[in-house]
Amino acid sequence: DHRRSPAGGGQQRRLRLRSRPPAPLRRGGAPPLTLPAYLTHAGRQVSLKYHALLSGDHSHPPNSLSALRHLLEGGAGVIEFDVGVTGDGGFVLNHDETLDRETTGRGPLRSVSTAEFRRLRLRDSDEPTATLADMVEALRRVQRPLKVQVDFKDALPVAAEVAAAFLAALAALR
Known about the structure:
This protein is of the alpha/beta class. 20% of the residues lie in helices and 24% in strands. The protein is built from 4 helices and 8 strands. It has a 4-stranded antiparallel sheet, with no helix packed on it. Strands 5, 6, 7 and 8 form a 4-stranded mixed sheet that branches. Helix 1 (65-74) links the parallel strand 5 (49-50) and strand 6 (78-85). The longest helix is centred in the last third of the chain and has 11 residues, at 160-170. The chain is globular and about 50 Å long. It starts with a strand and ends with a helix.
């Protein structure tokens, strides 16, 4: 697929979208979506990152395990998800300091325990929320190269014990 965009002086720039073959994780016999993994421009390869595990088709809630599966099936090469901290120090997938936008909960994320967070559903879906441990377990099963960016949403400065626990939770992905 070629895309042209105007450059200075009326010249045309050619961008080339490249996709990786989809990973063999199909469900229900539906053909997998093929997502562009990178753009090629002027001989350089630029990776595309799927922020909050979103592909742009709005078929899955942000920061969800179903969105992760969707991206992996589609062949995404770089993903990003958001991690917040609950009142009991648990690490969960949530973008905001509050529960309201991404979940069926209300109020500050730090006002609920990890167990209470697990009982919530993702907004506009019946899908349960996910913890960092759930995400790490899912990512450990990926059998191909994948770049992962974890956006830690806790307020700065982060206490040393929180940072150490966060790194320990991610250790299985090294």
